[in-house]
Design goal:
Layout lengths: L4 E3 L4 E3 L13 E3 L5 E3 L13 E4 L3 E3 L12 E3 L5 E4 L4 E5 L7 H8 L2 H9 L11 H5 L2 E3 L3 H41 L7 E3 L4 E6 L9 E2 L6 E3 L1 H5 L8 E3 L3 H7 L6 E4 L7 E3 L6 E3 L3 E6 L6 H7 L3 H12 L9 H5 L2 E3 L3 H38 L4
Parallel strand pairs: 14-18
Antiparallel strand pairs: 1-10, 2-9, 3-4, 5-8, 6-7, 6-9, 11-20, 12-19, 13-15, 14-15, 16-17, 16-19
Length: 382
């Protein structure tokens, strides 16, 4: 054992309180993002008395690590006084919070190294699990309680700042969308509806995620946009690197004015590419290039952020019970109002300052996220 490290088992104990009253409220799951989420499990005919009660300040983890992308689902309950979790989950708590802060322990669990450790220590013939015995064998540095509080406070300060910037960006995006709606409402009576395909020069799905643009964990100089990046509005700097040949890169490289649209998972989520970047996109996305002789990319982008567009896309979701893949033809059949280039320019001149502010906030969020990662990385050296 490294100097200054202790076995986690000295500080934690299992908790197994069953839901004897049969409550049905606040049924929770645990994600690999290390958060509690509202459960979407089918509970018809479920015996809720078998569920475990987890209380604020307690942890829950899913021992099975084999089907979660090499990550372990574990979380600290902070947002509710109590919740219910499946009886196959493990609930535990810190024995003495004056010796080990639950929030400090959660930071340790949040490290990518802990995910790798949990997978390495998982075992089983049918499914691989990290059982309670292995959890107790986890080694971690336990500095004095005041140092733990300082570390937790520093991390929380950054987290709160990120949340503030994200809220500001949400407000700016709402303002931009309001500007678009107001702009179109003054033109709608004199404009005919046209298909999106009428103003698109090209529309293509991206490179095969396994064969053409596989993700790697080292710097190749080329990043790859994936569905999760677009769905979560991640900026270019936080995308993963990929391997791509010169011919693949030339075919799928992203340039200023491109619009990316998700065609799998959550359909119709868009992202605007403001400048040329060293990146490609995979086959979970559609890349639109606007024909700039009769439309401006930024105008089209905001037209695809409206509730009208999303309602059109959702018609595909409701038309099938299986997970849909949006076809390019369906996307291009969407109808919208296309004013003159001069009128579109008026709108884009108005909205660009808002988008620039969003971009600056995203730059700060990325730097703050890097600081968070540094804090997590340095935990092991304390």
């Amino acid at each position: 054992m490294k100097e200054g490290y202790r076995f986690l088992g000295e500080y934690i104990r299992q908790v197994d309180i069953r839901n004897k009253e049969g409550k049905k409220e606040n049924l929770l799951g645990v994600s690999v993002q290390k958060q509690f989420i509202q459960s979407i499990a089918n509970t018809v005919g479920t015996d809720f008395t078998k569920y475990k009660v987890v209380k604020k300040g307690q942890f829950t983890y899913i021992p099975d690590t084999s089907r979660r992308g090499d990550k372990i689902a574990i979380a600290l309950l902070e947002d509710y006084e109590e919740g219910l979790v499946s009886n196959v989950y493990t609930v535990f708590e810190v024995i003495d919070t004056e010796k080990l802060l639950p929030e400090y322990l959660m930071l340790w669990f949040s490290r990518p190294e802990f995910d790798r450790y949990a997978r390495f220590k998982s075992h089983g013939s049918v499914r691989e699990v990290m059982d309670w015995e292995e959890m107790c064998k986890v080694e971690l540095p336990v500095p004095d309680i005041e140092k733990q509080r300082k570390i937790v406070k520093a991390y929380k300060t950054i987290t709160d700042r990120i949340a503030l910037k994200q809220k500001i960006n949400d407000n700016l995006a709402t303002q931009a969308l309001t500007l678009f709606s107001d702009f179109v409402s003054h033109l709608s009576k004199k404009l005919e509806q046209r298909k999106l395909g009428d103003v698109i020069a090209s529309a293509n799905t991206g490179g095969d995620a396994i064969q053409k643009v596989p993700i790697v964990d080292y710097d190749t100089g080329i990043k790859c946009a994936r569905v999760g990046d677009i769905t979560n509005a991640r900026e270019y700097a936080s995308w993963a690197f990929c391997n791509a040949s010169k011919s693949v890169y030339d075919n799928y490289k992203l340039q200023a004015g491109d619009i990316l649209v998700t065609r799998t998972a959550t359909l119709g989520i868009t992202q605007y590419i403001a400048k040329d970047i060293s990146a490609v996109y995979n086959n979970g996305l559609i890349r639109l290039k606007v024909n700039d002789t009769n439309a401006l990319p930024l105008y089209i982008y905001w037209a695809m952020k409206t509730s009208d567009f999303l309602n059109y896309i959702n018609q595909m979701n409701s038309a099938t019970s299986v997970r849909p893949n949006m076809k390019i033809d369906y996307l291009l059949n969407y109808q919208l109002s296309i004013p003159s280039i001069e009128e579109q320019t008026q709108f884009t001149n108005t909205v660009e300052p808002l988008m620039n502010a969003i971009s600056l906030n995203n730059d700060e969020i990325l730097k703050l996220s890097e600081f968070q990662a540094i804090i997590l990385t340095t935990l092991s050296s304390r």
